[in-house]
């Protein structure tokens, strides 16, 4: 009579609960946060007013006596939006200039994104494409947008096209580099699995590499959009008549520093969401 070996009963254990990483919280401006954010701007305004009043000389040769007071800039800002406070061609006409600048910045950014994203994916996944284009990219990328402005004026001419071209240059390379780096870091196992399913190389680029590169692509898009807006003034130095940069340049020509600073403040406020 043979004895049956006792069967080992499998112990069923509950898997420990998995804790998903908490999503990053968006900053909420509570009353306390607003109170903490007020002292520095107030201090800047007070020091600015005192510096103008007492003609302070700051480092880098900054002569505060040449600046308008905060109240003068505030009046100019109110006049730009509502009109009737300061005589001049920009009184109550700021929305037209804001719209023109937004259109130029958006056009240059959209064109840069349309070219940088697919080219960046190809650059990140193809060694031959990288070897072919990387030397040229490394030479052209460090050239500042301000150095391109005189060439754009001569080759393209005065007008919107030069401004959009310079905005395009400002946004293109950050998006290209970020997209290329994201595409190069796609896990090989994803591509191997796609190849086993019979996907052709171009389909793998579209259906595997591009979705896996989305975080890097969006990071580059955000940086590119910020640079496009920040360097908009350089683009609008090419002789356009309408736009925030054109308004700032006009303020320089007629020595209206309050107009220059008002344009700077508007550009800064509009750039906060970027």
UniProtKB/TrEMBL annotation:
Q: Pinpoint the ABC transmembrane type-1 domain residues.
A: 98-274
Using the UniProt record, give the first listed, main subcellular location: membrane
Q: Which InterPro entries match?
A: MetI-like, MetI-like_sf
Write out the biased-composition intervals (Basic and acidic residues): 11-23
- Record organism: Nesterenkonia sandarakina
User: Keywords for this entry?
Assistant: Cell membrane, Membrane, Transmembrane, Transmembrane helix, Transport
The protein depicted here goes by the name NitT/TauT family transport system permease protein
Query: Where is the protein localized?
Result: Cell membrane
Q: Does the keyword Ribonucleoprotein apply?
A: no
